[in-house]
Amino acid sequence: MARRGPPRAAGPKLGAHMSVAGGLPLAVDRAVAHRCDAFQIFAKNANQWRGRVLPPDEIREFRAKVAAAGIGPVVSHASYLINLATTSAALRRQSLDAMGDELDRAEALGLLGVVLHPGCYTAGSEAEGLQLIADALLELLRARRRGRTMVLLEQTAGQGTALGATFEQLASIVAKMNDHPRVGVCLDTCHLVAAGYDIASPEGYASTFAQFARLVGFDRLNVFHLNDSKKPLGSRVDRHEHIGKGFVGLDAFRRIVNDRRFRGLPMLLETPKVEGRSPTKIEVDPFDEKNLNTLRGLVNRSSP
Description:
The chain is of the alpha/beta class. Helix content is 38%, strand content 15%. It has one domain (78-298): Alpha-Beta Barrel (TIM Barrel), CATH 3.20.20. It has helices at 24-33, 56-69, 89-109, 126-142, 167-176, 189-194, 202-215, 250-258, 286-298, and strands at residues 13-17, 38-41, 74-77, 113-116, 119-120, 150-154, 162-163, 183-188, 221-226, 228-229, 240-241, 266-269. The strands form three sheets. An eight-stranded parallel beta barrel has the order 1-2-3-4-6-8-9-12.
């Protein structure tokens, strides 16, 4: 499980979403093979309400491999089915149970947190949806007072009635949770552009993060998803593209990986992977390798 290559200079912790096919410990092996500093997983099938029970020996092996590899932090991404903004009693109950399970799995695995799409207000209003999200998360965290795992609200592209696309909405959820210490934020570069935040230009980049600092605060920022965007600024369409091949562009990624405010933060790819490869072998994905190498090449190692 030795890391390949020389130790990294202080800077961003670059990594990617890694498959758990064949068992959770294999995700760590894949992260090592890709020379990741940090990584993300699904702790259960993201398109199902229920997941398999994690055997204690698999949990122990996963944690031991992460520690031996010196990789971290590690986060999980919550199921796409969860909608804590729904007004449907049945769906809300399912969503609460599923998110509780996500938090419990992450806690057992020693993860930093669970990345969550806040939800969609399919009925009611935006304000009601934000309150429902905050109430649900407070309920879940109060039931897990001794836990350490965080809820990481992912900024969204703003499709349809999806909440979390604006910094104001993210700040509202945090405020409604009484500034709970276990709620943080995950910023996605594709989603930022899709939602109308112009991080591609120098002026837009400065303005975007000035707004974030004022409304949310960098102390709440725990993770970046580094994805280029197939769709242009303000499209409100979430379509990830390879680094430097879309409307985010290399200059924006160069700014992010060298921004002193973001030093030490995990910056994780969710870009397309090569299709048709074995789901259980430990193989380097050529797309992940290329995208990670592109990002590594943007980091200014000589910066103070």
